[in-house]
Design brief:
heterodimer; A: 147 residues; mainly beta; Immunoglobulin-like; ten-stranded mixed β-sheet; 10 strands; B: 247 residues; alpha+beta; Glutaredoxin; 2 domains; eight-stranded mixed β-sheet; two-stranded antiparallel sheet; 38% helix; elongated
Chain lengths: 147, 247
Amino acid sequence: MLHRSIIAITLITALVLSACGTESTGPKISVEDAWARPVPAAGGNGAVFFRLVNTGNEADQLIGGESPVAGSVEIHKTTMEEGVMRMEHIPGLELPAKGEALLEPVGYHEMLIGANTSLALGDTLPITLRFEKSGEIQIEVQVREIE
Amino acid sequence: MIPVNRDHQAQHNSWKTGRLDSWNIGEGDTFHTTRFSATRYFQSSNFPSFQFSILRMRQTILLLILTSIILTACESYQFKGTEYSDPQPAPDFELTATNGERFRLGDHQGQIVLMFFGYTSCPDVCPTTLAEARRVFEGLGDDADKVTFLFTTVDPERDTLEVLGTYVTAFHPAIVGLTGAPDVLETVRQDYGIFAEKEVLEGSATGYIVNHTARVFLVDAEGRLRLSYSFGTPPEDILEDIQHLIG
């Protein structure tokens, strides 16, 4: 009888432990190498680029953002097709579990629409990135030239 | 007569000492022992054919050098941009420049004119191209006044002269923004094979964007449409072509 109980307890413990092992810890996002293009005059548009790194075991999605220096912040994607530049509005950018998403020139960017000030080289601006699961992440971005 | 020495180290050493005690390969062969001095061999006047070959070698080297110099001189410069096979006069146009004056392309012969079509609300490709234009101007140094860079708007609705002027001069004061009546701009685009299409982006605060050809055109000092550059061409390449054309 005692023997059976020990086996049962061991099995239950093993089950609980294995469940703990696969339990989601959620997305863990960091923002790296962020920079923004200059905006020559108030009223213009800008673009913010960065790398998103998700070390968590759950995917997330960048769904937008906001910044006090711009009327709106949206995710856009630039593409080049046969020498023609096209741009589209992206509702959400997938960030895989234990993966990365890159926002770079002629690719994805957080677009600053209707900047309320000019942004010169060396300036910094705050931007809040909004994620579907992780909520908001606020970063400071430096204005610099494309390398 | 001694047996063939098959000791490779011994053979190797014989080259270093100048003594060739044995040098043969055939199985079971024999070889006469020979004392050999390389220095004496080369200096010996008994070998006029050797001195002759030195002379011949010198002549050959001289000939090779001369040939390579001539070939280098004759070799035509390879442009980095895409060349028009039979360059024709660039289609002329007249638009309003950001300095408030009328700009007629035909009035600028003698200058190298670079042309790009874009718009100021474009956040990616246009600022990249204009930042590269600045690098070209910086690279030109004192020759910068021999080059004009035109940024012709594909969005005259939003790109007023003031907006356009502030935008282009922020990149470099020598960049000239151009605008005009929509139908005139359309004719210019057609003449240069530029695609531009307004597209309303649903759910976006941008309202609309303009998809457009992203290519830089080069009109040479004789007013001929000579070269074009795809987006992403390093500014150093454009600079090198211009420097070649300036001479």
